[in-house]
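Internal tracking record. Fields below are filled automatically when a chain is submitted to the structure queue. Please do not edit lines marked as system-generated. If the sequence contains nonstandard residues, flag them in the REMARKS field before resubmitting.
Queue: standard
Priority: normal
Entity type: single polypeptide chain
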Amino acid sequence: MKVKSALTAAAVAGVAGWLAWASRGIPGQICASSSKVSPYAGASPRYRGRKFHNTDPSSDAPTPSGGLLRDALTRRSAGRPAGRVPLVPSVAPDVAADVAVTWYGHSSVLVEVDGYRVLADPVWSERVSPSAVVGPARLHPAPIALEDLPHVDAVVISHDHYDHLDKATVHDLVRTQKAPFVVPLGIGAHLRMWGVPEDRIVELDWDESTTLGGLTLTCTEARHFSGRGFERNTTQWASWVLAGPVRRVFFGGDSGYTPRFADLGRRYGPFDMTLLPVGAYDERWSDIHMNPEEAVQTHADLELGNGTLGVLVPIHWATFNLAFHPWSEPVERLIEAADKTDTTVAVPRPGQRIDGLNPAHPSPWWMRLS
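SYSTEM-GENERATED OUTPUT FOLLOWS
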């Protein structure tokens, strides 16, 4: 009996020790509470009851249930590639192009527009989680080291989820770059707690802009949610219009489909390039994550009435296993839907740079990893 009790106590102590090890650093990752955000967010018409709200009502990510837990146990492996994801550690040109994008995986992109460079949703950590040892891990390495990025003019964040706002990456960018962080309302509270200098934080509400030389960054609507801990929707989420004097790029960040994108197209388009999420979809959270067919529709909506269609580059896939669909399904469905509508699509390998004015027809590099 004493032996059994000793074994039980040892097991409990082992579990407690593992939990303590896995939870190291979590409080600093969860970050700012609503009381820290309210002074900056209170004036927004989208901020009510100390929370932000979508224009079109939507749910947050579903809470764990029998069906969701069953899928997590039986279908999670479907989201992994069948082999090593090919990387293209491309070298940035000395002078930024009229319009181009380098995709580093998931939603991390370096956008070139009229000679300016904008780094959007940079995540270089191994996991997208408050824990360094538990949570979704990379399916491929970062194509280049963060220190090897060229000079950027701005860092743009779409929202505060771990796969879009990464504390370690922010710390490194404060050290290696001089660019301001241009973020939706409330996210500045996270950055201040992480030691980002106040003069490098620009917070914007939907349809507000900031100008850096000839570059205009406009915070625009998305249909999503936010939260890094138990509190939800205390900071704003957004898409972004990145506009130079001549060229324009739309960065979708993370969003469900909404006809509001057609309004953005009329107001801010046409766009030479749209960067739209195509992965991590599921019918249980369809109002906050668009599927590939909806990405093609969003691309068309953004150009509505402008008589032109730029190139669509898929993001939010391939790097982290965040849903239950097969790894390559997002881009396979995207290509099929794009072919039906004569939509120009470019599908870079992680690290590859795409010329937005002369995009190469995508070779199906993902097929051997299906």
